[in-house]
UniProtKB/TrEMBL annotation:
InterPro entries: Ins_P5_2-kin, IP5_2-K_N_lobe. Its main location: cytoplasm. It is found in: Cytoplasm; Nucleus. Its EC number is 2.7.1.158. Phosphorylates Ins(1,3,4,5,6)P5 at position 2 to form Ins(1,2,3,4,5,6)P6 (InsP6 or phytate). InsP6 is involved in many processes such as mRNA export, non-homologous end-joining, endocytosis, ion channel regulation. It also protects cells from TNF-alpha-induced apoptosis. The keyword Lipid metabolism does not apply. Signal peptide: none annotated. This is Inositol-pentakisphosphate 2-kinase. It catalyses: 1D-myo-inositol 1,3,4,5,6-pentakisphosphate + ATP = 1D-myo-inositol hexakisphosphate + ADP + H(+). It comes from Pan troglodytes (Chimpanzee).
Length: 422
């Protein structure tokens, strides 16, 4: 970042999660990611820098190793003028969802992460002046716990996402329960995947967003967001997916365009070529739990038809969904089995705080750290080393459970298709 040329008016609010907030540049395909903290929690500039550098190293040396070089963007830590950050914070405050304003943007350190804006990223030179459509999906956890440590019977039948839907509707975060179930998306069965994606489009919540040329055109921030309008979405999508039946408007056109979008997303999710090292986990992390979630409307409809289990096609091993699921399944013990191990590590560190650095509790996230994650044993030998490995595996699994998949699409001319196929 060029310090003398930072103008807050060139940046706009893009989105935020529980721990960070993102702003996007109006012209360039870059975003800045700032950390957020509760108002009473202060950290030094050095601590902020190290925190952000750890995120970069974790992405580069852990997640990129598992998921593949082409699927993870690590970014870099940059230092910004403090006055720019303060003015930017004031500029975007009114755009932030009320539910996220319990934490403040870090305006004191001047550090942030600079990353590519994947909602606008132009991959091929022949697409430079064509519209970019980006679909962001947060698929969530794709399996039901298989650990013998699980004591609640319901957790062996219903996935975490579907259980949380009931909680979030009861607490008023969302108006209605989504029909989306992650196990349908991760099934590899196209019929189930289509149902899952249509369910996301009907009730996006914060699990699906669609951007056109970097601008959000579909998705919601909280329970007060308006009901999804498929006809409006179809209007945006027509240049990308004009229906083959030639209908230019009306409900038939809307359904045809949405159907085409769902089919394209499914094809993308089932394709893949970047290898990564998630395959090294495969021998120990097969689909050990139930294949379906009892709360899934798709599964319930089959039971009403007298069918017990939907067909499971399985995910191709090279696809991103497969690799993401493998990393999620590093959660070998569930939180019920992990918590006693976490307490073991905590007690050890209370007694020997100087060991925190030696044990790589806060990094560095290097090759040695990555290699320890490949130990899939679940036999507890009573050591701190075993407990720490399971805790670190759980942290990586939770990262994969909360990751976003960004799919960028652009109209492709006939000559460009030939170029791509060649």
């Amino acid at each position: 970042m060029e310090e003398g040329k930072m103008d807050e008016n060139e940046w706009g609010y893009h989105g935020e999660g529980n721990k960070s907030l993102v702003v996007a540049h109006a012209q360039r395909c870059v975003v800045l990611r700032f950390l957020k903290f509760p108002p009473n929690r202060k950290k030094t500039s050095e601590e902020i820098f190290q925190h952000l550098q750890n995120i970069v190293d974790f992405g580069k040396n852990v997640m990129k190793e598992f998921l593949g070089e082409n699927y993870v963007h690590c970014g870099e830590v940059v230092q910004l003028p403090l006055e720019f950050v303060k003015q930017l914070c004031l500029k975007i405050q009114s755009e932030r969802p009320e539910s996220r304003c319990d934490k403040d943007l870090d305006t004191l350190s001047g550090y942030a992460m600079c990353l590519p804006n994947l909602t606008r990223l132009q991959t091929y030179r022949f697409a430079e002046h064509r519209p970019i459509l980006c679909v962001e999906i947060k698929p969530k956890c794709g399996f039901i716990p298989f650990s013998s440590d699980v004591t609640h019977e319901m957790k062996h039948k219903v996935c975490r996402y579907c259980m949380h839907q009931h909680l979030k509707v009861a607490t008023g975060k969302w108006k209605q329960i989504s029909k989306y179930c992650p196990l349908d998306l991760y099934s590899g069965n196209k019929q189930r995947m289509h149902f899952a994606l249509k369910s996301l489009l009907q009730e996006a919540q914060n699990n699906l967003k669609i951007f056109k040329n970097g601008e959000l055109i579909y998705g919601c921030k909280d329970a007060r967001s308006p009901v999804a309008d498929w006809s409006e979405l179809a209007h945006h999508l027509k240049p990308f997916f004009f229906p083959s039946n030639g209908l230019a408007s009306g409900p038939h056109c809307t359904r045809a365009v949405i159907r085409e979008l769902v089919h394209v997303i499914t094809r993308v999710l089932l394709s893949g070529s970047d290898k990564g090292r998630a395959g090294t986990l495969s021998p120990g992390l097969g689909p050990q739990g139930p294949r379906v979630c009892e709360a899934s409307p798709f599964s319930r409809s089959l039971r009403c038809q007298g069918k017990n289990t939907p067909e499971r096609s399985g995910l191709p091993k090279g696809c991103l969904l497969y690799k993401t699921l493998q990393v999620q399944m590093l959660d070998l013990l569930d939180i019920e089995g992990l918590y006693p191990l976490y307490n073991r590590v905590e007690r050890y560190l209370e007694e020997f705080p100087e060991e925190r650095k030696t044990l790589q509790i806060d990094g560095p996230y290097d090759e040695a750290f990555y290699q320890k994650l490949l130990d899939l044993s679940t036999e507890d030998d009573g050591t701190v080393a075993f407990a720490l490995t399971k805790v670190q595996q759980y942290r990586v699994a939770m990262t994969a459970k909360d990751c976003s998949i960004m799919i960028a699409l652009s109209p492709c001319l006939q000559d460009a298709r030939k170029y791509l196929q060649g």
